[in-house]
Amino acid sequence: MSAGRSVTVRAPAKINLHLGVGAPREDGFHPLMTVYHAIGLYDDVTVADADDWAVEVSAVGGVDVSAVPLDDSNLVVRAGRALVAHHGVRRAARIRVRKGIPVAGGMAGGSADAAAALVALDRLWDLETSDADLFDLAAGLGSDVPFGLVGGNALGTGRGEVVEQLPGADVPRWWVVVTAPAGLSTPAVYRRFDELSPDAPAEPRAPHRLVAFLSDPADAVAPLLHNDLQPAALDLRPELADVLAAGEAAGALRGLVSGSGPTCVFWCADADAARAVAGVLTEEHGSDRVLVATGAVAGAHVVEYDR
Ligand code: C5P
User: Fold this and answer.
1) How far is the CA of 254 from the centre of ligand 1 (A)?
2) Where are the domains of the chain?
3) What is the pTM of this model?
4) Domain 1-307, CATH
5) Which residues have CB under 8 Å from 213's CB, separation 6+?
6) Residues lining ligand 1, judged by CB closer than 6 Å?
């Protein structure tokens, strides 16, 4: 990064502890009732003044960043353009993204980057964007972007963009995350959901019991984890069923496809259980593809301020 002021913001990956999906709305989006949970896999976004928008992407650990666009279609540039348009200022930035969140993995990595870019550019330029405006801008960029701002545990409604914080974020949770060699397209998974669920209700399934038990011990919460997109993801990638079965056989309390997949996540009783499950899964999938992470963690936050 060239000399001058820069700001780095870190944003977490998300898991949907519950993902209830309804029949598509008139605008094509699906109504959701979801419980978001932020886990400790992060993307770091560093911004600095520049004459024109530019994006650089690098990988942390074994993340494959080859599919990340480096042009104006990257969500961080769209976030930056939306922010300057909102304030009516003429600014541009060079944006560096260090990706620790699997790409196209159903963990909202691109959304985390957009949330981080909004916060980083707001701080870089002292724009003092109100929280309400930041959430509106975030919602305009993608359904999962507002959650990237709040982190922790949150209820998501609408198409996922309406978020409300939930309790239980202070109870440490241990996850094993198994990434796939190739990503899945979110729209393609939703399309397969539509084919498999022609009678999906207009109102998605609500997570009442999960919300009530969010602070309970892991074994009590395990049976309440639920993902309506899982059958569609498994239909597109049948081999994921073997990954889920292997993780549960190795001692995970529950295995789940993360969001639209193909990343599989395993809810474990504690740190020792997570390490044991990760050890078994690493034999099959390799250490680059098996990660241990804790939840819940904070949303987008400044980690470096250089001015
Ligand atoms: O909002 P976002 O840009 O993340 O959505 C990506 C795609 O996922 C949408 O274009 C749509 O195909 C699908 N989607 C959906 N219903 C949602 C969220 C996403 O159908 N609630």
Assistant:
1) 26
2) 1-307
3) 0.96
4) 3.30.230.10
5) 220, 221, 224
6) 29-30, 32, 142-144, 159-160, 186-187, 190
